[in-house]
Amino acid sequence: MARRVAATLAERPDVALAYWDRGLARLVVSAAEEALGDKVVDEAIALAARHGLSLTDEAVDGYAHPGDAAGIRAAAATLAADVIGTGVALAGSFLRLPPSPRLVTAVATLLRENPRFRGFLRDRLGPSRMDVLLAAANAAVHGAGQTPIALVLDGALRTCQLADTVARATEFDTVHDQVCRPHRAGLPPRPSVRPPLRTTPAQEYAAHASTGSVLGAAATLLVKHDGKEAAEAVLAGSPKAARYGPAAFHTVLSGALARTGVLVRDAERLRQLETVDTIVLHPSALRTPGAGADPWAETVLDAARRAGLAVVMVDDPALRDFTSLADQVVAGGQPLREVVRAVRDEGGTVLTVARLPSTDPQADVDDTHVRDDDTHAREGMEVLDGLLGGDVAIALADGDSAVVWGADVLALNGLADVWRLLTAVPAARAVGRRSQTLARSGAALSGLLVAVGESNARRRSPLPGLRHVPVDIAAATALLSGVRAALGVVLTRAPHPGPRTAWHALQPTDVLDRLEHESDEDTDTTVVEQTTVRLHEAADTVGHTPALAPVRWTVELARAVRGELDDPLTPVLAVGSAASAILGSIVDAALVFGALDLNALVGGVQRLRAERALSGLLAEQKRKARVTPKGATEATGAPAEDASAEARTVDAAGLTPGDVIELKADDVVPADARLLWEDGLEVDESALTGESLPADKQTAPTPRAPVADRRCMVFEGTTVVAGQARAVVVGTGDRTEAARAVALAARTPPSAGVQARIQELTRKALPLTFAGGAAVTGLALLRGTPI
């Protein structure tokens, strides 16, 4: 019906374009002339109404239109509420008006931070209306209670959220003509196949903190029979730091990704990155449409392993070279949705990546009823259901791929965007852990301030207006930490992966021709890349100036000290020191703080010395290579008879693909290279392949051979046992087989050693310590003993 309306409108002479966008469930009409726009729109609305279609601003199947301004209005409304509330709080304080009861503020804060209450409102009002309602209530309560600091912190987070919403809407307007073309497939959302949102660590902590706050308030009320002090106890246990950190991280990350061409469709799903432990990759995601493996395939798989994710791949003949980087390879005939369902049934949180092929958008296909004989459509539906069955669904929308509007993230740049998101997984986990630590520390110190203030009836709190400053400081620190971590992910320099060429399957002359062609392409760098390289080189040169040596050493020492302070016991000792100061034991606090800093300083100095000694040893062991000049090698690779120039010795780190190197007995191969000529060459490859006997080499191609049987190749790090040869460099740095072997073990290893035991002990003992402290405090209050 909708396509019939679009076809009718397209026949009109005053309509330039009319089509039905099935993915967004919108009728798109463009007038031939700007002056006729209103007239065309009115006639389109009337024609659509006659066919049963209506004009609406409501979300389709729970998914808002990416260009809808309703999200911007909601974010602006929440920020405006915080600004107005801050103004009211400051005005009331300036005019010395009586604040509202603390019990009102405590109840509002308790409900606002409670995950169950937030979920209740979200289910009935939707995310946007829930945010507006809670923001308005929070602003009213804190404004009347004259507590502007809480509103300033909330306003900072709301500012980030408004910037994110504007960035996403702006990016959609920018790429609209790319993703909403008339002849590009758009697949509508399928909410029925989406799994429920998992509980995040921040929500778990908030639930426990809410329960603890209520128990603390009940104990305070039981002891002192003072509702105001009970309200102070509730506010002291506020878990907002645990929420602010991850919220700021994902908000800034989403906005920054939008500026690079990534469309985040569901911000709530993006926050599941912290809990993701498995990535499921469909072969369509790792292949270039109509070609072989995507150049980014190996880089993405390596990033997934470094993020500590279990990698699950669907078998495909074109991707056999990458199966060693996967933890599990399932049969190619198994539907993707079954693979995802099996992982989720085992308790895993799954990130799915797939690319849906572009089909004819004008074909009226009912997604829920695919004909049994339509194999292609049925397979496409299985891939779509599998993609949307993940906790976080990333749809590749590069080229002419179908636009899956029900996905959580649309990667318009292909696997490059997936790589960026995978690098964000470890950062999201770190932000979550750090935010919870800050929340616990702030709650402990604020609770102690409340207890001290109520422990002696003859004196009020020593800091009556600063009881909850630790909670606010913890929230501000968590917010800044989340913003900083997100910017670090976005500013991380992306690699420039190249296609993985089977050099061992090519003739020597073909290898030389292809390398020469690739070197010509590599010279076409952008101005931005050239400027970035020059700036880095200039900064490196200035940084190593002798006059700036003290500054450089101070910066290095500060980094080393910071690394020493990154210890599981540091937060515990710091909170204990602050608690001692609050209780009046200034000397004890100074001793603990001084010992902590002195230990970090000594450890930092020792670390710097060790790193310098290691750098000196590595500098003495720099690998060398002999590079033959141009014209010294014949087309066959053999040394030219009339060549008079000798090979020059260079650092192996300076080799580039296309350089021709000489190899002799006892040489360590400086890079992966394809043999051009050899004379009795034997190479010890035990360090790479595990073979105990030297491998005989040849120049003839060895197609489809594994690494150990590639007789026409020499690999970095292996040793020449006998003979001599000339070879052309084809791989350096992280593009060598040795680097790939290291990448196989690149998964983030579990913590081991003393630090791991201390961290485990701290994690188990910290709740007991807090419980014991609370029990002692409660008993002291019951007995009337000063704390």
From TrEMBL:
<keyword id="KW-1003">Cell membrane</keyword>
<keyword id="KW-1133">Transmembrane helix</keyword>
<feature type="region of interest" description="Disordered">
    <location>
        <begin position="623"/>
        <end position="647"/>
    </location>
</feature>
<dbReference type="Pfam" id="PF00122">
    <property type="entry name" value="E1-E2_ATPase"/>
</dbReference>
<keyword id="KW-0472">Membrane</keyword>
<dbReference type="InterPro" id="IPR008250">
    <property type="entry name" value="ATPase_P-typ_transduc_dom_A_sf"/>
</dbReference>
<feature type="domain" description="P-type ATPase A">
    <location>
        <begin position="646"/>
        <end position="745"/>
    </location>
</feature>
<protein>
    <recommendedName>
        <fullName>Probable cation-transporting ATPase I</fullName>
    </recommendedName>
</protein>
<comment type="similarity">
    <text>Belongs to the cation transport ATPase (P-type) (TC 3.A.3) family.</text>
</comment>
<dbReference type="GO" id="GO:0005886">
    <property type="term" value="C:plasma membrane"/>
</dbReference>
<dbReference type="InterPro" id="IPR023298">
    <property type="entry name" value="ATPase_P-typ_TM_dom_sf"/>
</dbReference>
<keyword id="KW-0460">Magnesium</keyword>
<keyword id="KW-0547">Nucleotide-binding</keyword>
<keyword id="KW-0479">Metal-binding</keyword>
<keyword id="KW-0812">Transmembrane</keyword>
<keyword id="KW-0067">ATP-binding</keyword>
<dbReference type="GO" id="GO:0046872">
    <property type="term" value="F:metal ion binding"/>
</dbReference>
<keyword id="KW-1278">Translocase</keyword>
<dbReference type="GO" id="GO:0005524">
    <property type="term" value="F:ATP binding"/>
</dbReference>
<dbReference type="InterPro" id="IPR059000">
    <property type="entry name" value="ATPase_P-type_domA"/>
</dbReference>
